[in-house]
Design a protein that fits this description.
Distance between the termini: 70 Å
Number of strands: 15
Order of helices and strands: EHEHHEEEHEHEHEEHHHEEHEEEEH
Helix content: 25-40%
Oligomer: single chain
Bound molecules: flavin mononucleotide
CATH class of the largest domain: Alpha Beta
Number of helices: 11
Shape: elongated
Mean pLDDT: 94
Length: 318
C-alpha cells in the first residue's frame, strides 16, 4: 500500500490514541504513513440547516485528503462504550459528501484506553460500521491499560506480547488482497458450518492453537471421557473423537449466534444424538459461549442437559 492516512478520533491535546498511532508510524517508517490531526478539522455539530448553507470548508479539504489516500489507520477513543462525539461528527459530515467515504480501501482500526479493555467495546461497533462507510476492514487491535503497557518516553508499547499483536494487525492490514477480517460471529458461524458438514479440519482450524475447551464440566478428565476440560488445538481432536465415539448425531440446530461484550459470542440451539451404547436418543437444548481471539475460538464452553444424557445412557444411581 502506498499512501496510508493515519488519524485518531480524539480532540484531546494529550491523546493516548494519538500516541499509539505515532508509535506505529515510528515503528513502520519505511511505509508512507501520513498523520493527520483531525482537531484541525473541527467543525460545528452536523445539522441539516448548516448543511443547507454549505458543507464546511475543512470537511471538503479532509474529503480530498481521503480521496488521495490508499488506506486508513484510525485509532478511536471510547466514550461510554461508543466512539467519541468528535469523531462521530466528522464521520457524519464526510458521509453527506459520500456515504461510502472510505471508498473500498483498506482500514486498520485501533483503540486504547486506561482501562483493561482498551476501548474494545466500541471497536466491536465500529467493526460493523466501517464496511457501511465503504471501508475494507482488514484488522483491529486494542491496547488495554495504556499507562501500564506504553512507554511514553520511548513512544513504544512496552509489553512485548502486545507489541507483537500490533505488528501482526499492521501486517494483515498492509497485505495485498481482499482478505477482510471475519467478525466474531462469523468465526463461530464458521465453526458450526464445519461441524454440521463433518469437516474435521475446518472445526480444528476454528480453534486457537492455545484454546481452552470446557465440555459441560470444568474439571480434569480421563482421556476418553467427553465431559471436562481440553487444552490446545491438539487436544480438541480428542474432544471431537470423544463426541463421535459416544454419539451418532441425528440433528444439530443452531438457533441464535450473538455477540456480547469483550469478544464473547453466545450461541444456542438444540441437538439430537443417538447414544451408541444404548440406541436411545439424547435430545437437549444447548448453550455455547466462545471468546474469540485472532479470528479463532480461544475459549469454548458448551453446556447441555446432562440429566437427559444420564437417562439416554441408562445410567442408574443407587
Ligand atoms: C465521558 C467519558 C467517557 C469514557 N468512557 C470510556 C469507555 O466507555 N471505555 C473506556 O475504555 N474508556 C472510557 N473513557 C476513558 C477514555 O478512554 C480516556 O479518556 C482516553 O484517554 C481517551 O482517549 P484519548 O486520550 O485518545 O482521547 C471515557 C472518558 C470520558 C471523558
Amino acid at each position: 500500500m502506498k499512501k496510508i492516512l493515519a488519524f485518531t478520533g480524539s480532540n484531546h491535546p494529550e491523546s493516548i490514541n494519538e500516541k499509539l498511532v505515532q508509535s506505529l508510524i515510528n515503528r513502520f517508517q519505511e511505509h508512507d504513513i501520513r498523520f493527520i490531526d483531525l482537531k484541525k478539522f473541527d467543525v460545528p455539530i452536523y445539522s441539516a440547516a448548516i448543511h443547507e448553507a454549505g458543507i464546511p470548508q475543512p470537511i471538503l479539504e479532509l474529503f480530498e485528503i481521503f480521496k488521495e489516500s490508499e488506506g486508513f489507520i484510525l485509532s478511536s477513543p471510547e466514550h461510554n462504550g461508543l466512539p467519541s462525539a468528535f469523531l462521530k461528527n466528522i464521520i457524519d459530515w464526510l458521509s453527506v459528501i459520500k456515504q461510502r467515504f472510505f471508498d473500498s480501501k483498506p482500514v486498520l482500526l485501533l483503540s486504547t484506553s486506561p482501562g483493561a479493555t482498551g476501548a474494545s467495546t466500541h471497536l466491536g461497533i465500529l467493526t460493523k460500521l466501517v464496511p457501511l462507510w465503504g471501508g475494507l476492514l482488514k484488522s483491529t487491535y486494542s491496547l488495554g491499560s495504556f499507562q501500564d503497557n506504553f512507554d511514553e518516553e520511548k513512544m513504544i508499547i512496552s509489553n512485548a506480547e502486545e507489541l507483537q499483536k500490533l505488528d501482526r494487525a499492521f501486517q494483515i492490514f498492509n497485505k495485498e488482497g481482499e482478505n477482510i477480517i471475519k467478525s466474531n460471529v462469523d468465526v463461530v458461524q464458521g465453526y458450526f458450518n464445519a461441524f454440521q458438514h463433518g469437516d474435521i479440519e475446518g472445526i480444528l482450524n476454528s480453534f486457537h492453537p492455545d484454546c481452552y475447551i470446557v465440555s459441560v464440566k470444568e474439571e480434569e478428565r480421563p482421556t476418553e471421557q467427553l465431559h471436562g476440560v481440553y487444552r490446545t488445538r491438539e487436544d480438541a481432536k480428542q474432544f471431537l473423537k470423544n463426541i463421535s465415539s459416544l454419539f451418532e448425531t441425528k440433528e444439530f440446530l443452531v438457533q441464535q449466534v450473538v455477540e456480547a461484550q469483550g469478544n464473547l459470542v453466545v450461541a444456542k440451539g438444540t441437538f439430537s444424538h443417538l447414544v451408541k451404547s444404548t440406541g436411545k436418543l439424547f435430545n437437549s437444548n444447548w448453550v455455547q459461549l466462545c471468546i474469540i481471539e485472532d479470528e479463532m475460538i480461544k475459549e469454548y464452553r458448551f453446556y447441555e442437559d446432562s440429566a437427559a444424557l444420564i437417562e439416554a445412557s441408562n445410567i442408574q444411581y443407587a
